[in-house]
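Researcher: Let's continue the batch. This sequence belongs to histone deacetylase, and it's 404 residues. Same format as the previous ones, please.
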Amino acid sequence: MKIINRVSEFSKVTELVFDDSRNFISEIATELTRCFGGLANLNQNLFHYRSPPSLSMSSYSENDAEALRRKRILSSKLYFDVSPSKVPLIYSESYDISFLGIEKLHPFDSSKWGRICRFLVSFGILDKESIVEPLEASKDDLLVVHTELYLNSLKGSSKVAMIVEVPPVALIPNCLVQQKVLFPFKKQVGGTVLAAKLAKERGWAINVGGGFHHCSAEKGGGFCVYADISLCIHFAFVQLNISRVMIIDLDAHQGNGHEMDFAYDSRVYILDMYNPGIYPLDYEARNYINQQVEVKSGTLTEEYLQKLDEALEVAGRRFNPELVIYNAGTDILQGDPLGRLEISPEGIALRDEKVFRFAREKNIPIVMLTSGGYMKSSARVIADSIINLSNKCLIEAGGAPKSA
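Model: Same format as before. Here are the structure tokens for histone deacetylase:
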């Protein structure tokens, strides 16, 4: 992902935010009123807020840090029992990010998650009442992976603006940034963590969101604020008694966040198939990929799928996982301005089918995350792929799909 850096585009940003300043301020005031129930004590609440002290992982020995991490995981509420009547497909309306139109200044479609579910419901593959809603990840949940220093840095709107690559976010009071930007991400983190539990119980789970693979314990970037993949795996280690996890990252971009987090952890095997000529160009993190497959700009569907077949065959020989985390970005889609690959919609459905077959044939629970995708058409492509997985009996979504 790239920050909007051309003068013409910046002028559009400026026009959007400042053209009608009084209206903009009115909108802000309305949201502040919702936050605090009135503006009388805004100064006290906004500028003099101090979070309660909490334990930092860095202040402990390695053994103490692991004990603290385990305690946090065991006391978390993110794992909860889900009724058998529910389908292991996780989504909340809170996932979608919308605030004064500013979200449109980033090429990522921050409303795609809701549109995926609406497609699935309209096609009859899914009943709205059968969708699982996750809980928001708390600060203690996030501290399982993230440092106190990093989480505190998110109290600065400018820091969040840098991570989500939308400069005007720096101008918004942080209480609103917390509510309108960070809260949706925390809900998606909760969804990714819960997905592992459901996958272990049902064989598969799909979080219609998540896949923030550019974020590591101490650093966010590329529209990724929290390291949901790393959190999901650490929860699985403790709560599910799992000791071997395979990450299959097929987003067009390198998954440098989880690669840094599990750099020296032999319990995690990383297969990353990515375009080496685009963001994040993290050469250090590439040293920690167990199996990297480079697909250069312009790669077509047939070549891509052939490389994937070969990669999965190698991965299956090298590692025997107890859980697969599948980062299924659709930024490989032909025409995607950031992925720069040329994979057809049918090719993406075949890609997902191959990964699910890989897991099903080995009887390995699989978690799918939707990750990147920068065109409006991505939502329909993802929905069609999920329908295909259901038609091929690789998932049991519980509905008889209508003609799409």
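Researcher: Any comment?
Model: The beta strands are 89-90, 204-207, 245-249, 268-274, 291-294, 323-327, 366-369.
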